[in-house]
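ok trying this again, last paste got cut off
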Amino acid sequence: MLTMLILFLFGLTGRLVSGDLFGGSPLTESIPPWDFADHPISPSSWYATGAPFPTNVWWQNMVLGGGDQLNVANPYIVKTLPDGLHVCLPIRIASDRSVDVQYRDNVILSASENLGNHQVTKYDELSVTATWTPSQGGFEAPVVRGMPYATVFYQDLTPSIQFEGTVFSASGESPGTRFEVTLDNGQKWIVYTSTDILFTVNGSTLDAADQFTGSIRVAGHWEGGIVDVAKLDECSG
């Protein structure tokens, strides 16, 4: 109907007519007959863009309730918690009736310092940025749907990367910009840093020796799985 009206107006004038097709007056001034109710879960202080809150977005668990529930970015699942960005490369669990994924804290991108709370500071259709509020420095994580890496930007903080389970081996020159970590759960994680950094292995954690400004990103894959490591290396910068 609307398309026909536009075509009709275009045919009369020879050009497309813009403006309010309804003349600017409300369709009705009567109140809808149904009951009103507030949603039981409202956006919290985790939302700080200054813009109206978008409904039914894929990252809404970052700002609803405690802001600490799952957000599926694919291929990773992430959580935004007080100690940083929690990242999971999920395990697929298949049965005759369903295919599910299991969340585990495979990697936590964190810092030695207290990071404070997170807030969503910007977003678009495919990405959202969570920014933490440490007493000094900065900690920011852009989360993008389909991202091959999980990335955090550090400013004057001491990086700490925590892995689930035991670190079987950690390879790469230190200080350096690329490290491979093999875990006892069958996963391998490649750690990329924007500039040289000195890491030491403390149990299941890589701890930086000094404060760092720049980006750290991690890419995970399953041992024996199909992965183009050369392409990950090429696009990591």
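PB: full thing came through this time. Residues 1-17 have pLDDT under 50 and may be disordered.
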